[in-house]
């Protein structure tokens, strides 16, 4: 069964033989089975690509030898005084290594979310190496998550969570990724950009391109979070900064009015089963936003519309 994400191999998995990786994948699947029984609702536990579960089972049982993509899913939790959403990315060698876990809430301030994730990471480090830890992370959130709504001011709406601190620089980051297919990553990128009051775009596919612009500290905080996720390859290709004064409106420096995911609505044509986009359309979009110059930074050649 073909997955939306290309098969990738964790570097640590390369040092393990197939039977060892199969054993680790079996443990992952047993934990997911347990979590699905705990959260049976259609929006409680959401697997990014359900076909990956089938592929992992086939791999664990020896029906295929090609290592499938990593498993990614989101668990949506109701806790006292609020809701939490935990994004999970399981490396192939989990539980021998820690997973990537990130928690957010539409009604928590950025400070509260940061503290919550730091405290959760500290808790995960207390779990014995090699033990399954997503279940214990859920238990910790159910027990402790509500306190973060009590200890920090609660936002009245999602837009309030992007209240900016004083910053005398405007920045625009141009990010390049080997590919962006994961629906969970794409949603998290959108959510984080709104959380940090950033405008720009995300172009999914192969390659994946992201532009974020706003207060420089907000772009740095966004980039710090995004690059910590599991990627085959991701880097900042270009960084633009300009000093701003107190009497200048930030919107005057923005090239994009919102943050959006590009696709057919922007007349970006997709080919080869959704893996590749028409680069001429991408260049045209950049030109429309006075950013055509960055095409050469990404691809080493001057672009032209088609």
Automatic annotation (TrEMBL):
<dbReference type="InterPro" id="IPR016135">
    <property type="entry name" value="UBQ-conjugating_enzyme/RWD"/>
</dbReference>
<dbReference type="Pfam" id="PF05773">
    <property type="entry name" value="RWD"/>
</dbReference>
<dbReference type="InterPro" id="IPR006575">
    <property type="entry name" value="RWD_dom"/>
</dbReference>
<dbReference type="InterPro" id="IPR010541">
    <property type="entry name" value="Prp3_C"/>
</dbReference>
<feature type="region of interest" description="Disordered">
    <location>
        <begin position="1"/>
        <end position="20"/>
    </location>
</feature>
<protein>
    <submittedName>
        <fullName>RWD domain-containing protein 2A</fullName>
    </submittedName>
</protein>
<feature type="domain" description="RWD">
    <location>
        <begin position="30"/>
        <end position="148"/>
    </location>
</feature>
<dbReference type="Pfam" id="PF06544">
    <property type="entry name" value="Prp3_C"/>
</dbReference>
<dbReference type="InterPro" id="IPR059181">
    <property type="entry name" value="RWDD2A-B_C"/>
</dbReference>
<feature type="compositionally biased region" description="Polar residues">
    <location>
        <begin position="9"/>
        <end position="20"/>
    </location>
</feature>
<dbReference type="InterPro" id="IPR017359">
    <property type="entry name" value="Phi-like"/>
</dbReference>
């Amino acid at each position: 069964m073909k997955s939306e994400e290309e098969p990738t191999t964790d570097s640590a998995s390369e040092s393990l033989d197939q039977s060892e990786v199969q054993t680790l994948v079996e443990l992952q699947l047993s934990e997911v089975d347990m979590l699905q029984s705990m959260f049976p609702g259609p929006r409680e536990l959401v697997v990014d690509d359900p076909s990956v579960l089938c592929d992992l089972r086939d791999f664990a049982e020896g029906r295929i030898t090609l290592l499938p993509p990593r498993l990614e899913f989101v668990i949506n939790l109701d806790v006292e005084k609020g809701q939490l959403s935990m994004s999970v990315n399981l490396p192939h060698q989990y539980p021998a290594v820690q997973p990537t876990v990130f928690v957010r809430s539409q009604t928590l301030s950025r400070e509260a979310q940061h503290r919550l994730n730091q405290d959760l990471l500290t808790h995960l480090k207390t779990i014995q190496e090699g033990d399954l830890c997503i279940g214990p992370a859920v238990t910790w959130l159910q027990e402790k998550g509500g306190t973060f709504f009590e200890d920090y001011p609660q936002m009245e709406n999602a837009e309030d969570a992007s209240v900016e601190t004083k910053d005398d620089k405007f920045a625009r980051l141009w990010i390049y990724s080997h590919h962006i297919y994961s629906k969970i990553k794409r949603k998290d990128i959108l959510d984080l950009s709104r959380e940090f009051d950033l405008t720009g775009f995300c172009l999914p596919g192969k390659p994946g391109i992201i532009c974020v612009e706003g207060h420089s500290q907000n772009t740095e905080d966004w980039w710090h979070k995004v690059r910590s996720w599991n990627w085959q390859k991701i880097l900042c290709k270009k960084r633009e900064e300009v000093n701003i004064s107190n009497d200048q409106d930030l919107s005057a420096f923005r090239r994009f009015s919102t943050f959006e995911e590009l696709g057919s609505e922007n007349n970006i044509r997709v080919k080869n089963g959704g893996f590749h986009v028409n680069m001429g359309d991408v260049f045209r979009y950049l030109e429309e936003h006075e950013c055509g110059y960055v095409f050469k930074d990404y691809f080493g050649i001057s672009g032209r519309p088609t």
